[in-house]
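Sequence in, structure out.
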Amino acid sequence: MKQQVDPAGAGDTDWSFAVYFSDDPWINENPSVSDWVQSVRDWVQFRHVLGLICCQSMPILHPGRNPLMLDPIPELEFFKDEHRYRWRGEWLAHSVSDVLDVELTPFKRAMIEKYKHGPDGWAIRGETIHEYLDGYLKGGRPPVPEKWDKWIDALLDEDFFGEAEVMATEYRVVDPLKNCAGSFDFLVRKNGLIQIGDLKTVSSKKAVAARKPATAQLGAYSSFLARQGVYPDVAVTIVVGPEKVKVVEQSVGTCLEAWEEAWGKFQATQPQF
């Protein structure tokens, strides 16, 4: 397994060691050894976060109405039409979406493109409902075409945001070491825990149940956000369809592992210089 560079700038060979050997059948059949491997995994995750704490800046906090709100990362821009990020005047080579899309089969790519456009396509649906959630979390109720009411009503009926303190919405993050950026949908503090989240929209109730959580995606955002001195405790995927919502909570550690695995696969496809 190739050595990767963690967000703190330190090599994570021991992270790879713990992840790799924890999947070994012999280890899983021997409880004492398995417990030791788990302790290694716990230590690696602690070291990973400790490195971030020691190497990164303090949180960028909004000085105005809500002391929890994060200010945008300076000079980090997103260009929607090109779906590219620019930081400090320089184009970044990758986005989180680019990295995760590398494993899509030609058939899946064709299906995604087939249903993307048009008045009922997933692009306009996702954009509309994301914009509504962004406005709602900022205290407003943006107007939405009636055709999307079943999605919006289902989202409003979900009590996840009921007791949540909003820290960020549609927030851009960057990892300069990976030359990569992305945007997560929301960051809230709820029940004393910082929860980072991604919203997914689907076309039907059946699709809500089938939609997988954004595990690796949230791992990327959590890793990048830690560079700002903010460390999520929980990763949340909210899947919304007509009249139905599913909320999936995952550990940030699980998401970080998935992201590093995805990054490794992506790197293997890139030209070697």
